[in-house]
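Notes from hallway chat w/ T.B., transcribed later so I don't forget. T.B. wanted the structure written out for a chain they're using in a teaching module, and asked if we could keep both sequence and structure tokens in one place. Agreed to drop them here.
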Amino acid sequence: MTAIRVLLADDQALIRAGFRVLVDSVPDLEVVGEAANGREAVELARSTRADVVLMDIRMPDGDGLAATREIIADDDLAGVKVLVLTTFEIDEYVFEALRAGASGFLGKGVEPAHLIEAIRVVAAGDQLLSPAATSGLIARFLTEPDRTTPPPPALLDVLTAREREVVALVATGLSNEDIAAQLFVSPLTVKTHANRAMAKLGARDRAQLVVIAFQTGLVRADGIA
């Protein structure tokens, strides 16, 4: 089994050391580098070919938000997932990180087993942690002022009716298993539809799929449109 390559980016050496011990204790994960600031995080993402970056937001010499934007914008790093770490789980910087393409967020007080599972989930391109919590956060940050132009509803025209249905249900916070039960199909079928929708819409992962669903009006903060 090929281990998931993890890059740690945090300006506090003690926190990095703790994460390293935890991550390296699991057979299918491997720490491949440590960065103390945003600039180092970008450089090491390129040189180590990490699969997942655990990214702190508040760092000197290029914060985690700037580093996330640079990593996501680099075509050579298309396979790299960014998992944001924050002291406060509802944080204005988290909103911007998700807009920039981060795959999700974690509070620094997360339980060790939860962190390990989150890394695996993000590496697989799936939705992070609690689907309801993730979609709720995304719904909240989408209500914040943003100077970018949202994608038109017509963007969804490339999807089949079933794919649109799956995307809408993903965006309401349902897991693959929940969606499968609602649509009377298998979880694998749900994942296949979600993956096809991501490919057609150019979404890096399920978090971005949720963002598109809200931005195009397919789903509103109070439910499916």
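Follow-up for T.B.: The mean pLDDT is 84. Might be a good example for the class.
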